[in-house]
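Sequence, please.
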């Protein structure tokens, strides 16, 4: 039965999609059966993993949520891993589904395919609406990437509040996988100060602060634009960081 990890932050540009991509590639290199669910209408994860997410394809996660296709009919087998793609059609879910039980849509879609995979990774949108609530309701754990700045840390309180609400209402078993500091520059005093502040905030919230930090890398950005395997890059510090993150999450029982 698959372990389901959601990667989430309501703030954009914190490395959420990059982290999902890197973890997927890392797990595949370990021989795991991996399914990525792109749950962001922007569809960046789909693009980076070489899935076809054109609107005219009519086989995205949106069509599975609406019940127009079986979940297995929306899974694409890419050179990297299996992907349920997303596109801008997904943004309509907020308005189209207003009835009772709409927070369970994704969980219901994933249930028939749980036995096919070891790990399912959900890339959630940079917002705290019904899509993120669906992702949390479907997940076992939630990984929270944040940049080393005070605004990102303040956003953790709101993100944790959404997680608590989901735990009360629709998924009592979902747990925080931890807070991951991205774009971290160890030699900068500001980054070190923020890390100390993160220790205090995560302790108050009862969320683990992961030992691993991710350094900034333009090489990773370029690799995603070129739709390359980011974990196959050698000699890159950020890739080394993501390998450490993978090992830490496996050690913690998250993956």
């Amino acid at each position: 039965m698959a372990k389901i990890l959601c990667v989430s932050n309501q703030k954009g540009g914190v490395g959420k999609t990059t982290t999902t991509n890197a973890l997927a590639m890392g797990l595949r290199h370990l021989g795991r059966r991996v399914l990525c669910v792109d749950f962001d209408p922007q569809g960046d994860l789909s693009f980076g993993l070489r899935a076809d997410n054109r609107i005219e394809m009519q086989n995205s996660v949106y069509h599975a949520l609406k019940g127009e296709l079986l979940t297995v009919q929306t899974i694409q087998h890419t050179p990297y891993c299996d992907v349920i793609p997303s596109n801008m059609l997904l943004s309509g879910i907020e308005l189209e589904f207003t009835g009772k039980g709409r927070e369970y849509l994704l969980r219901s879609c994933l249930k028939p395919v749980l036995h096919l995979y070891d790990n399912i990774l959900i890339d959630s949108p940079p917002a705290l609406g019904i899509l993120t609530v669906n992702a949390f309701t479907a997940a076992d754990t939630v990984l929270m990437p944040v940049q080393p700045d005070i605004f990102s840390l303040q956003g953790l309180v709101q993100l944790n509040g959404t997680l608590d609400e989901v735990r009360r209402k629709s998924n009592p078993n979902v747990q925080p996988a931890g807070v991951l500091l991205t774009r971290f520059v160890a030699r900068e005093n500001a980054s070190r100060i923020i890390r100390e502040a993160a220790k205090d905030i995560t302790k108050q919230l009862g969320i683990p602060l992961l030992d691993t930090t991710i350094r900034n890398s333009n090489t990773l950005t370029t690799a995603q634009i070129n739709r390359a395997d980011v974990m196959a890059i050698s000699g890159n510090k950020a890739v080394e960081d993501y390998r450490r993150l993978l090992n830490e999450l496996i050690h913690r029982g998250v993956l």
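The longest helix spans residues 150-169.
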